[in-house]
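Two quick folds needed for the group meeting slides. Do the first one here.
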Amino acid sequence: MTLRGLYAITDQPLLAGHFLDYVKAALDGGVTLLQYRDKGQDDTRRLREAQALKRLCESYDTQLIINDDAELAARIGVGVHLGQTDGPLTAARSLLGPRAIIGATCHASLGLADQAANEGASYVAFGRFYNSHTKPGAPSASLELLSEARRQLRLPICAIGGVTLENAPDLVERGADLLAVVHALFAADSASEVTRRALAFNALLRT
């Protein structure tokens, strides 16, 4: 599949009370990748929610990605996104197989992106580019870095961190293939507004 489009990331507190409704609304607006991100310790609940998301994603032909947990990803047969402290990418590739989508957090480092590419990453993620609710203390990345990454890398590039409909055009212009969005997608008053926002993000990536 082509890794280009909206990359929706779930947030447990933000989606409390309308978790599946808002995820479905985003999928209605078009989502290339959906990342299940939950830092909680309730493994039973996380498995149940991940399985529910997988069923939902399959009905939309969207790929589900698990944040930071290659074992959970392997258990339900989906992809994984790994941070720099989540273990080697090569181990995840061995566990999940050659066809699984595996993403790597590269912060603002082209060196980390090169390493991830060599280890078999499916895409690399840079950020944060703007002030972020989810990771307020993360290192900042520049638009210039994104331009340089586009020149150097053959992999799809994901931009994350404070991405909104207002600043996303700059990221796309500099070479982002995937726009990873949490609050600007899901911090909405209604499911219909989530769908509207998803459609608007995807419109920015049509070429």
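Then this one, please, same format:
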Amino acid sequence: MTTHVLQFVELSDQDRKAAKAFDKLGKGDQVEVRVRRKSGGDQIVRLPPKAAVLLETALGHLLQGERVAVLAEDQELSPNDAADILGISRPLVVHRMDVGDLLFRYVGKHRRTKLKDVLTLKARIDGQRAAPEALAEDAEALRRRYGVSPTKKSKSVGRSSNRTSSPKNVDQLVLGTINAPYRRTINSTDLVARLKSRDWQDWIAHVVTFFTEVRPELVLQFARLHAIPIQDLAAAYRSMKSTTGETNSALERALERLA
């Protein structure tokens, strides 16, 4: 059985000052690595294009003072490692494992998941969130551009964009975002009940996604349409933040302004 070790590389400040970044590689560029042996001989290795791009990216991160790790796809990661890659908290990673969204196994009492499964989940989350986010951005752009206009055409578009503010469309945008990454789906009635009671039960991941992935304007609009007082919404956010460590600074500023 092959064992892969998680190897982190980090440059010292002195090394970073002495090193030079790649110029941006262009199509057809070739990268050769010269190895100067202790014996005095040189060896030149020509890198395949994909390996050259990888080296360029890794060096760029190192020169910015970041750590770089080289992993194989079957490398097993802890929930903390997976959380760093997915950009969510460890409790949410464990939740994803429990509901079957992220495959894992136990090594003793510790959970382990493969890098390839984490990357598959990340790709699915990113792809599923893109559609509702794009729809919300388009709706907002239409409101900004055509919300007030004397022309016949603009009035027509303005009426269409006003419909995006209806309860049905707000619910579609919000629920489309928070349900997209998960197999289980929550409806607006249950979401409102969870927010008012702050009793998350099995819906903690959906509540976190509501507060961190839905645009603040939509969060506030959803609360207003479903008669959730701003004080209750703010209390629900603080409870979620305390429980999971997840935050949304833009939403916090909006809640402070309305408090």
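Slide caption for protein two: The chain has twelve helices and seven strands.
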